[in-house]
Structures are given as structure tokens and as C-alpha cells.
Amino acid sequence: MTLTLPKMQTAPALRTREAVIDCDIHNTIPDDKLLHPYLPARWRQHLDSFGIGFYSQGAYYPRQHMNAARTDAWPPGKIPGSDLDFLRAQLLDQWQIDYGLLNPLYLAGEQVIPDYADALATALNEWLIHHWLDPEPRLRACVIVNYEDGESAAAEIERRATDSRFVQVLLPARTREPLGRRKYWKMYEAAERHGLPVGIHFGGAGGWPITGAGWPSFYFEDHCGMPQSIQSQVISLVFEGVFDRFPDLKVVLIEGGFAWLPPLMWRLDRSWRLLRDEVPHLKRAPSEYIRQHFWFTTQPVEEPGTPEHFRQLLDQLNMDDRILFSTDYPHWDFDSPEMAIPGSVPKELRRKIMSENARALYKLE
User: Contact 28/81 with Cβ under 8 angstroms?
Assistant: First the structure.
């Protein structure tokens, strides 16, 4: 298949070759009927009648760009992220990506019919295998699970654990309960047992406002407020004792930034020193759990007006081996490998961010 790519995407031909591992690529289904071979007859009929139908109990604000996509990322006659050949040419080949991690934002846990959520998660994982992983060896994928049912999610993890191309479990930032709650622990137990990180991605709609003060008015507020949800999940996982129970569990924060993390750790440590009698199960300061158990992706990386301030942020974070490069393709706020990391970052640290941290975390060769 021959594709004509936009003129704006000619920069990679000029860049010096370096390893690149993209930890956040969004693929999607061009036609729901592609799930038919992987669904029982009962749910195939339901799919035909109602569609994938994420009946979320929360607001979705109109996106500034249709499908939240780049204007040049639409394959002929299809929606962004739905055509492997187009994605291969415009992303994997154009930017010389060594590995790309698929995060399809089909959040089975948002279904209100539990059995349909279970069937949909299984079908989506089969679709990933046959339509993406089998034909493209550079791709890896997240396990789609019905995360609101810990036992069901654990069973789906068990089904996929023998396929080394599934390297992570995918959850949204907004769930029906904080992710530290016990209803999710079976899922964490299975993920830890098989050495699979749990990725918490921007998005979701658990039925609650994104702010502590209620529903905002604009997409801009919803988009920029997502780190609030991610911060709440970090706090919940630490203080509910998830990492004391699952000491080898790894969590990746995807598409939520990270400049907020140092002051959050400072605040949590101070509060813990004052209120630690309430949580005697915590054996260490919250910042120690965070530095041991969390990773995070670059897109959307915070960009201070003064370049040296970015290096100061990394020094305060003190987690150079936990930063993972991501493009967020095909979304409108895509970060190119050429421009995502400020020039003030030392060469060796850039190499770790662009590829080696992800290679170690996901056990990629």
C-alpha cells in the first residue's frame, strides 16, 4: 500500500538515528463487526443493536478536534488510528519507532452490564492480537480488562499472561472508586504475579465530577484538570496499602504530566508525619512508595519558559529511570520524538527517556 504523507512530517529523515520506544499509541476499530468472531452470539447481537456503547455515568466534553485527532492523521475513508498500514507509515516508519505500545481507549470497565464488559474485554484483546500484533512485530499491547470487577480483570490477565506481546494492564484515571480500594486487589495480584505493570491513562468517566468543586463548563477545564484524578489515584494506592500488600507491583501514569509529582510527594510526606497513626500499615514515607512503584510518560510533558527549569524539575523528581517517552499518536497534542524532550536534557538521560527506561520496564529486547 502506498501512502502520501503530509509535508509537515518530513523531519525524521534528518534526525540522527536513536532508539525510540513509544509508550502511548491509540488504535481504534474501524468497524464494530470486526469483533464478531470473538464474541458469543448473545453479545454479538447486543453489539449489533447498541454498538460498543460505553454507557458511562459521567460527562464527555466536546473535543476541540474531531476524535481528538491530528487533522493529518485520518486514513482515507477511515477514522484515526484504525488503519495499521497508515499508522505504520505515518508513525512507526516515519519516526523510526523500535517498539510501540498500543493503548486502545475502549474501557470495558465503563460498561454497566457486567457480562457484556467481560465479553467485550476478551474480544478486544483477541482483536488486538489478530489485527495488530500478529501483522506488526514492532507493536506491543495493553491487556483490556473489566477493571470494575477485580476477579474478572484477574481472569483476563491470566488469559493473556502467556503472550509476551501484552506488556501492561490498562485502566483509566477516572474509575467508580479510588483504585486503592479492595475491589481492585485481585487485579493487582494477577498483574504482580505475571510481572505486568498497571497503566493508568488519562480519561474515563466513573460518574463523578473531575474536580472537587463540581462539573466544569469547558473541555479546556476537563482536559487540564485530568491530573487531579491521577493524583487522587496515586494517593489512594499509597495510603490504602496496595504496595505493602503487592510489593512488586508497578504503576505507569500515562498522559497526565509529572511536574506536579515533587510537590505532591512533599505534601504527602508532611501529612504522613502528622497523621501516620491513622495508617500504621504504611511502613515508609509516601514518597518512598512513589519512587519505588511509579513510572510516567512524557506526553504532555510540562515545558517551563526557562529551559534550565526543566532540568531542575527532573532533579526534584529524582526519578530519571522512571520517565517513558510517548507520542500520544494520533491525537491533536502529538509529541514528535524530535521535539518532545528539551535540549537542556543531557544526552544519556535523553537516551534513557527515549528508549531504555521502557526497554527495562517492559522487558523488551
Answer: yes
**pLDDT per position as a tens digit, 252-271:** 999 999 999 999 999 999 99
* Helical axes 286-293 vs 219-239, angle rounded to 10°: 110
Write the burial class of residue 45 (CB in 10 Å: 0-12 exposed, 13-18 middle, 19+ buried).
Answer: exposed
- Taking Cα atoms as reference points, which of 102, 107, 104 lies closest to residue 153? 107
Instruction: Compute the distance between CA of residue 172 and CA of residue 192 in angstroms, rounded to an integer.
Output: 18
What mean pLDDT value characterizes the chain? 91
- Whether 21 shows a pLDDT value over 80: the answer reads yes
- The verdict on domain 17-361 having CATH code 2.60.40.1120 is no
Q: Which H or E run contains 23?
A: strand 21-25
What percent of the chain is predicted at pLDDT more than 70?
93
Report the alpha-carbon distance of residue 21 to residue 153 in Å, rounded.
27
Q: Identify the CA nearest to 299 among candidates 347, 232, 353, 219.
A: 353
Q: Which amino acid, residue 161?
A: A
Tell me how crowded residue 84 is: count the other CB atoms within 10 A of its CB: 17
Residue tagged 507491583 (cell numbers): 249
CA distances from 70 to 139, 172, 226, 331 (A): 21, 22, 20, 5
The three cell numbers locating residue 156 = 483476563
Residue 36, CA distances (Å) to 40, 129, 131, 243 in order: 8, 14, 13, 39
Q: Rounded to whole angstroms, how far apart are CA atoms 298 and 323?
A: 7
Domain boundaries, given as residue ranges, for the chain: 17-361
